[in-house]
UniProtKB/TrEMBL annotation:
Entry-linked PROSITE patterns: GH64 (PS52006)
GH64 domain ranges (all copies): 1-340
Pfam families found in the cross-reference section: Glyco_hydro_64
Name of this protein: GH64 domain-containing protein
PANTHER family xrefs: GLUCANASE B, PTHR38165
InterPro entries membership: Glyco_hydro_64 (IPR032477), Glyco_hydro_64_fam (IPR037398), Glyco_hydro_64_N_2 (IPR042517), Osmotin/thaumatin-like_sf (IPR037176)
Length: 357
């Protein structure tokens, strides 16, 4: 954790600490008012880090001994647990890695939409172009707009979309949970979202070939459903693919989308592209027999779609920001909707809190 004085703080606890204990060190870095800038220098390299922001209150972090790793483990705020100490706080984060290879950051809504923010990365002495990359983040009133869209979608298909919207203790809209986070507590939610769509996909690709463009030296991978076992078989893959459930699609890391230690590179290429195609409902679209190949304008055209992701992108200032795990999948030359910025020559990373307009 980074302290206000610009040094790293490493919270710890004894091996006897089996219940989470509040970290009381002052790790909050106060920000100024609207239009102000707070400068922060990172004193060393960090990997898989988060820059957390909260409005009108500080977030509460805890530490507990983890016998599985034989080391202290930090307990972070939960966006979904109503009993969490920070449940009534408006907060969010930017994901960040800064190593000897450079800097990577992204705006992520994979788990939830909370405090609105965007990012701008400026290279040090850029060689080509302006040396500036940006993900604007969500618009100022995006949470209400997203929830209006989700409520309307519930009226159309009767599914739990409107329940993704959470209010604070005063009844004000506070955040929007992703379907995958909501399902972690409500496992039967959305279970029939892709049932009919899956039937059509499996029927179509019994007689047609689904081509996965690996976008690597592995080239195009031919896939087809075999009637003998009802599984999708892909040439050269270390595994076969069963029809995914809604839970597996939303998470992209279980069932046919699990990547085991022994998985080969072809399977590793198929998983993100196939899972993204289900989220965006492009498998039955014209040209959808090649994944990825379609432009972002063709995403979410079927009722069997991740409507949370659809509305998140709709109300982003530039349409960029991860709304599910493999939202960085794009056709060659296509628009990057993931909201990530990176460079091997980092200068300044600017994080804007409050929205893009």
């Amino acid at each position: 954790m980074l302290l206000p004085n610009g040094t790293f703080y490493h919270p710890t606890c004894a091996s006897s600490q089996t219940s989470p204990v509040l970290i009381t060190a002052d790790t909050a870095i106060p920000l100024g008012g609207k239009g102000s800038t707070t400068n922060i220098n990172i004193p060393g390299y960090i990997s898989s880090a988060r820059v957390w922001y909260a409005s009108e209150d500080v977030l509460k972090f805890y530490i507990v001994w983890n016998p599985a790793t034989n080391s202290p483990t930090m307990v972070i705020p939960s966006a979904a647990d109503p009993s969490d100490a920070s449940a009534d706080v408006n907060w969010g984060f930017v994901e960040l890695s800064y190593t000897g290879s450079g800097l990577f950051a992204n705006v992520s809504y994979v788990d939830f939409v909370g405090l609105i923010m965007g990012i701008r990365l400026e290279e040090k002495a850029p060689v080509n172009g302006t040396g500036v990359q940006m993900a604007q983040g969500l618009q100022t009133n995006a949470i209400k707009s997203i929830c209006d869209g989700l409520t309307k979608q519930t009226g159309i298909d009767g599914l739990e979309w409107e329940k993704l919207c959470l209010a604070d203790s005063k009844g004000n809209l506070l955040r929007v949970l992703s379907p995958s986070l909501y399902i972690s507590d409500q496992p039967t939610a959305f279970e029939n979202l892709w049932t009919s769509y899956n039937d059509k996909v499996w029927k179509q690709y019994q007689s047609q070939v689904l081509t996965i463009d690996s976008q690597s030296t592995n080239g195009n991978i031919a896939c087809q459903v075999q009637q003998s076992d009802g599984l999708l078989h892909c040439a050269g893959s270390s595994t076969t693919y069963a029809r995914p459930t809604a839970n597996e699609i939303f998470g992209c890391n279980e069932g046919p989308f699990a990547i085991s230690a022994g998985a080969n590179d072809i399977h590793k290429a198929i998983v993100p592209r196939l899972c993204a195609a289900f989220h965006r409902s492009t498998l039955l679209s014209s040209g959808g027999n090649v994944q990825p190949s379609l432009p972002a304008s063709s995403y979410y055209a079927d009722q069997a779609s991740n409507w949370y992701s659809k509305f998140v992108h709709q109300f982003e200032g530039d349409g960029r920001g991860y709304a599910f795990a493999y939202d960085d999948v794009a056709p060659n030359g296509g628009a990057d909707v993931s909201g990530s910025v990176s460079t091997g020559n980092p200068g300044t990373l600017r994080i804007f809190v409050g929205g893009s307009g």
